[in-house]
């Protein structure tokens, strides 16, 4: 009987040690994933696509940039951009090259699409928020530097660089292969005000940008 008791205790101790050694301790996140506290390895218990922490996105967007002022009315530029993004978990680095012909010139009631005057340039920035690099929905803040040039094909003396920072917010969703984003940003209007002053306009202006983007997720 004594030997049997010892055998049972040894067996229980062995099983307990095995359970402890192979236990996957930790709380699953919303992606059904977590890091094993003992092995420090990240893994998922659900579909394999949930284990993807980030990647590269190549896509395009349609965008509108506006300069609004009490005395100047509303200048609008609308066009397209090519985009690239590298993301990981909650953060992403972004880059764009855009071209936006002028749609209105001070008077928003006078829609006059004029591709002889346009904004063209590049911008680079960061996104930060839940789900930026993961499968599913996402919300984030974004900020960066934009370097557009106003080009007037008919009068090169009107050309000007209106570079400045931007900051804003966005939301969207990542599927296994596609990415969708809607973004709105405030634009530093310092250089825009200087440009308008040179054009005989009031420097009191607010600059903003909105865009709708689609991309392919690799």
- Tell me the Rg in angstroms: 27 Å
* Overall 3D shape: elongated
Number of strands: 11
**Fraction in helix:** 10-25%
Q: Describe the biggest sheet?
A: 8 strands, antiparallel, barrel
User: In percent terms, what proportion of residues is strand?
Assistant: over 45%
Tell me the structural class: mainly beta
Strand order of the largest sheet: 3-4-5-6-7-9-10-11
Task: Give average pLDDT, whole number.
Answer: 86
Distance between the termini: 64 Å
Pick out the low-confidence regions: 12-23
Number of helices: 2
What order do the SSEs take from the amino end to the carboxyl end, as H and E? Answer: HEEEEEEEEEEHE
Kindly describe this structure.
With 218 residues, this protein is mainly beta. It is 14% helix and 55% strand. The protein is built from two helices and eleven strands. An eight-stranded antiparallel beta barrel has the order 3-4-5-6-7-9-10-11. A hairpin with a 3-residue loop joins strand 3 and strand 4 (73-88). The longest helix has 21 residues, at 2-22. The chain is elongated, with a radius of gyration of 27 Å. It starts with a helix and ends with a strand.
Lay out the secondary structure:
Layout: H1 2-22, E1 33-35, E2 42-44, E3 54-69, E4 73-88, E5 91-104, E6 114-128, E7 136-152, E8 160-161, E9 164-174, E10 178-187, H2 190-198, E11 206-217
